[in-house]
């Protein structure tokens, strides 16, 4: 049900509320003429009246409005006697009455009087009042009254006619001028907003075309002062948007086309027959005067508020749609501004602006020509902008051109000629950006191949398939390159973009340096966007046109071919390869794989090795891009993982590595490809590496004098050994004769008991009895001459000995052959020994580490392991006298591992090595004592028992000194002990403990070992337990001699005797 106004009952209630206030106010105002006038009481009454009026707004009507206005009009007549606050409240109350009570029923003369009064009160220095200067609040209330008056007058034909009459022109001009001055000069934001709203109401509701044209110069001049950005006065966004709307309405009504003005009802009836001030000369003058003003206003395009930018875009669209004929000189800057405002924005207003421009472009051919001419100008100025230092200006210019090109493309206009200019302009922009000076990083020019070729990249994300921008070197370039990339994608989505791609492809092969990088990147970006977008659309629609796709498919083949050339080319010694080109080449390979899908498997023979080669470079960015490329290969070719990708194509990779090594390609990336390959694929790739290992040793033989190269190659072999040691095939080796070593009972020394002593005496007595004659066995074969007793006889004898021992000779009982991985590890370990005397300490340490890694898996096949010990032993033992402590410690570690896995087989070697171990002990002990500042260890003497076993101690004094030095080393962290010294000592202790555990020693050697390990028995319970397992009595005796035991420990009575009640006698 429509609202029919307030009911009679509501009006009566409102009247009852208003009556006492209005009567009281009238009486107070009349009393103001006499001596008893109370100004304060009047102010309170007006305040109360305003409150009631605001509360009763829904029930107000024109009659109630007249009733409320009566006391207020009496008060206004005495305005010279009341304060400013009273006038402010009065005007605020009148503004409510105009808006909600009078409305379209306002009287014309009353409206004119109120306009005059409010104009006077809004002036800075009003005339005819007691106060000399007005207040911001009073001006705000006056502007609010003016706004409501003009809105209400628009619904009254009489009011509109009066305000548009020539007689009212001076007053209207005064009101406009006062309002504009109030906006400019006022410091209060609410006053500026109220003034802008009143001016907008006047222009939209009262002023016609002739009035606007008459006051246009003055209005535009002051509006320009308001709208021009300034650092001294920052206008509120509400003021700016309102003034922009006012300016837009003025221009549309004055310099717009006649048809549009008539359709908008801007021509008044009373002036339609008179001559208009708008003629050709006026338009020319207006165009000349408006251009500089609009240039200043359009600087608001940099404003941060979105609503201001939207209002400015509306002004620019008005200039293009309605004022393009009169203000032709402003069309280009309006077009540039509107694209600047809409570019890079996703707001609804931006989309609306684009739609309006597209409609204008299709409907108006001159506008299309203007747009193309503007784009050409922008492209010519683009390199100049890109050479500047203002990054925001670069981004803005690129977005402008991109938005304009997108509009032309969406309108279906021909762009082939424009595409060629775009290719050149974008290429120049990329080159300029690449050549711009960037932040220099000192110490980054030289990167050591050995130190930087780590495998940390393999521990990162292994599922990433997204590349970062290959050209961005610092943060300032990121947004610029992002805009250029987006522009290239916009161009590639055009149906006629083949000219753009063709121009880039033609110059790609014959360019170099930054120009080639720019061509490659732009063509790759356009090709990727075009092919992937077309594939997405083709999956839904069959458009029946493959011309564009065919052009970009050819571009992709060109990029793929060039990418392989870049990645396979050898870099000169004097110049490093361009990492940006390598990175782009990897992206080209990845794109080729994504487009080809599973069919790309046939291309892996050419493309997989270059990617791994790049993965081995020192550059972290290239390593990351290479891993991303491998992940894309894996996904495109439908492999489950990168490991499967490499294992399935391991023959391609091993052949490529072998060819590089056989051609003596000594770049560090070549061997490191194998490192990456083995790390990624694991032990499953080891069986295929035999030829590559042979090639590595061939290179080592010919280039062993180059220490850095040798280290890199042996690092490869070490990685192969580490992965091979984890191979499941080696864990499955079960030689039934592990046999020959473990089957031999470990001969431990133990005390002789009574039974064994009696048996020994009987055997000795039997040997002393006369020997009985023994008959020689009959010969089993014919006698032969001494000259025939040779190899064959010995061979037969050995066979007979094997038969006599009951050993089987059938081939079926021989152990199964070792797997291929085992053979490769054995070969690497055997050949490594020849490089142990190398001059580089780090290389010697690396080689010993390699041997340490390969010994445990090799030990599982004793037929090969035991001969390997014979081969390696001399070189390993010689390292005990090495000048580098790290090498000595590694040699001791390997001796420990050999004893652990060979057991009794090492007994003779350990006996022969014992003097050397004793010398290591003495040397280390002397260094520890000397370093601790406690003195020196004297040279130990030989034992007097006649054995060739060297004593390792020289009395209790020296022993206690060494013990104190060890306690200092372990218990006092603040006391400095050489790290290398500690390393050798710990390795020696571990090696000696392992020897005791796994190798049978004579009592004499055990005693020596016990003496050497005595200082650590208290701090290392594991070592003490190992020694007690061998000979607990000897350990007890040593501890007793050294005073480590406070009292004699009574041995436990055997359980068999204790059960019979036998106990140890107690000695008093």
Automatic annotation (TrEMBL):
Where in this chain does the record put each TTI1 C-terminal TPR domain?
753-926
| Skewed-composition ranges (Basic and acidic residues) | 761-796
The record's Gene Ontology cellular component field reads:
cytoplasm
Q: Which InterPro entries match?
A: ARM-like, ARM-type_fold, TELO2-interacting_protein_1, TPR_TTI1_C, TPR_TTI1_N, TTI1_rpt
Residues covered by region (Disordered) = 757-818
Query: Which superkingdom?
Result: Eukaryota
User: Transmembrane ranges?
Assistant: none
Q: Report domain TTI1 N-terminal TPR positions.
A: 15-342
Q: Which Pfam families match?
A: TPR_TTI1_C, TPR_TTI1_N, TTI1
Protein name as annotated: TOG domain-containing protein
UniProt organism field: Hortaea werneckii EXF-2000
């Amino acid at each position: 049900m429509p609202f029919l106004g307030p009911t009679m009952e509501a009006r009566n209630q409102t009247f009852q509320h208003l009556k006492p206030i209005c009567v009281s106010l009238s009486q107070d105002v009349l009393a103001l003429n006499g001596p008893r006038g109370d100004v304060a009481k009047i102010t309170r009454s007006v305040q109360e009246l305003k409150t009631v009026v605001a509360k009763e707004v829904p029930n107000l009507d024109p009659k109630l409005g007249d009733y409320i206005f009566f006391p207020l009009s009496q008060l206004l007549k005495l305005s010279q006697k009341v304060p400013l606050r009273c006038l402010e409240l009065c005007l605020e109350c009148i503004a409510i009455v105009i808006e909600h009570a009078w409305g379209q029923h306002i009287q014309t003369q009353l409206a004119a009087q109120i306009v005059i009064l409010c104009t006077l009160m809004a002036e800075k220095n009003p005339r005819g009042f007691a106060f000399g200067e007005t207040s911001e609040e009073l001006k705000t209330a006056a502007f609010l009254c003016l706004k409501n008056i003009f809105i209400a007058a628009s619904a009254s034909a009489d009011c509109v006619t009066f305000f548009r009459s020539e007689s009212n022109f001076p007053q209207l001009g005064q009101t406009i001028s006062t309002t504009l001055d109030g906006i400019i000069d006022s410091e209060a934001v609410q006053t500026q907003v109220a003034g802008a709203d009143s001016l907008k109401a006047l222009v939209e509701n009262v002023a016609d075309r002739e009035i606007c044209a008459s006051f246009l110069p003055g209005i535009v001049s002051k509006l320009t002062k308001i709208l021009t950005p300034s650092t001294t006065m920052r206008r509120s966004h509400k003021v700016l948007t309102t003034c922009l709307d006012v300016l837009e309405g003025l221009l549309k009504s004055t310099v717009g086309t006649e048809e549009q003005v008539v359709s908008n009802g801007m021509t008044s009836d009373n002036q339609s027959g008179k001559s208009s001030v708008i003629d050709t000369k006026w338009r020319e003058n207006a165009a000349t005067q408006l251009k500089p003003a609009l240039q200043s206003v359009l600087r608001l395009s940099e404003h941060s508020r979105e609503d201001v930018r939207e209002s400015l875009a509306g002004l620019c669209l008005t200039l293009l749609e309605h004022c393009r004929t009169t203000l032709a000189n402003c069309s280009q800057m309006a077009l540039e501004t509107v694209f600047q405002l809409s570019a890079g924005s996703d707001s609804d207003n931006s989309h609306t602006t684009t739609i309006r421009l597209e409609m204008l472009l299709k409907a108006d051919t001159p506008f299309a020509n203007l747009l193309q001419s503007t784009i050409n100008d922008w492209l010519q100025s683009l390199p100049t902008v890109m050479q500047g230092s203002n990054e925001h200006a670069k981004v803005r210019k690129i977005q402008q051109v991109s938005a304009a090109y997108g509009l032309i493309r969406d309108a279906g206009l021909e762009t082939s000629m424009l595409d060629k200019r775009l290719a050149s302009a974008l290429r120049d922009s990329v080159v300029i950006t690449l050549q711009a000076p960037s932040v220099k990083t000192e110490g980054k020019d030289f990167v050591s191949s050995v130190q930087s070729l780590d495998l940390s990249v393999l521990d990162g994300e292994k599922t990433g398939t997204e590349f970062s921008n290959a050209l961005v070197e610092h943060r300032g370039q990121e947004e610029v390159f992002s805009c250029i990339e987006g522009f290239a994608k916009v161009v590639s989505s055009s149906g006629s973009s083949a000219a753009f791609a063709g121009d880039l492809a033609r110059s790609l092969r014959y360019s170099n340096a930054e120009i080639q990088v720019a061509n490659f990147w732009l063509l790759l970006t356009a090709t990727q966007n075009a092919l992937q977008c077309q594939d997405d659309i083709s999956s839904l629609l069959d458009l029946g046109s493959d011309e564009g796709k065919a052009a970009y498919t050819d571009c992709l083949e060109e990029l793929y071919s060039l990418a392989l050339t870049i990645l396979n080319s050898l870099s000169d010694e004097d110049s490093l390869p361009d990492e940006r080109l390598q990175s782009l080449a990897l992206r080209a390979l990845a794109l080729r794989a994504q487009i080809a899908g599973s069919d790309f498997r046939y291309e892996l023979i050419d493309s997989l090795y270059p990617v791994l080669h790049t993965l081995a470079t020192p550059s972290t960015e290239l390593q990351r891009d290479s891993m991303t490329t491998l992940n894309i290969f894996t996904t495109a070719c439908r492999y489950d993982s990168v490991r499967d990708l490499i294992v399935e194509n391991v023959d391609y990779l091993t052949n490529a590595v072998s060819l590089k090594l056989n051609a003596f390609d000594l770049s560090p990336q070549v061997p490191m490809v194998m490192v990456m390959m083995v790390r990624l694929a694991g032990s499953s790739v080891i069986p295929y590496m035999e030829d590559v290992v042979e090639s590595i040793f061939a290179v080592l033989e010919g280039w062993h004098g180059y220490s850095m190269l040798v280290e890199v190659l042996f690092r490869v072999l070490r990685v192969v050994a580490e992965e091979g040691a984890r191979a499941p095939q080696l864990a499955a080796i079960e030689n039934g004769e592990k046999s020959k070593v473990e089957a031999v009972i470990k001969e431990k020394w133990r005390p002789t008991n009574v039974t064994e002593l009696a048996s020994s005496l009987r055997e000795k007595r039997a040997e002393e009895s006369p020997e009985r004659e023994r008959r020689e066995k009959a010969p089993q074969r014919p006698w032969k001459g001494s000259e025939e007793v040779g190899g064959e006889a010995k061979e037969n004898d050995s066979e007979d000995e094997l038969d006599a021992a009951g050993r089987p000779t059938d081939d079926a009982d021989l152990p199964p052959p070792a797997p291929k991985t085992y053979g490769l590890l054995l070969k690497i370990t055997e050949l490594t020994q020849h490089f142990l005397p190398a001059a580089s300490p780090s290389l010697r340490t690396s080689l010993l580490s390699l041997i340490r890694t390969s010994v445990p898996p090799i030990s599982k096949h004793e037929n090969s392991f035991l001969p390997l010990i014979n081969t390696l032993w001399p070189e390993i033992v010689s390292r005990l006298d090495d000048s580098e402590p790290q090498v000595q410690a590694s040699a001791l570690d390997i001796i420990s591992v050999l004893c652990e896995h060979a057991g009794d087989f090492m007994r003779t070697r350990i006996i022969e090595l014992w003097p050397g171990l004793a010398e290591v002990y003495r040397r280390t002990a002397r260094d520890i004592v000397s370093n601790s500042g406690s003195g020196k260890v004297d040279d130990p003497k030989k034992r007097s028992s006649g054995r060739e076993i060297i004593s390792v101690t020289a009395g209790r004094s020296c022993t206690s000194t060494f013990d104190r030095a060890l306690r200092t080393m372990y218990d006092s962290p603040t006391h400095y002990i050489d790290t290398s010294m500690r390393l050798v000592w710990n390795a020696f202790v571990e090696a000696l403990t392992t020897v005791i555990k796994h190798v049978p020693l004579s009592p004499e050697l055990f005693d020596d070992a016990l003496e050497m390990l005595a200082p650590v028995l208290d701090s290392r319970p594991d070592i003490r337990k190992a020694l007690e397992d061998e000979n607990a009595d000897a350990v007890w005796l040593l501890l007793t001699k050294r005073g480590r035991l406070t009292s004699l420990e009574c041995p436990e009575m055997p359980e068999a005797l204790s059960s019979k009640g036998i106990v140890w006698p107690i000695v008093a």
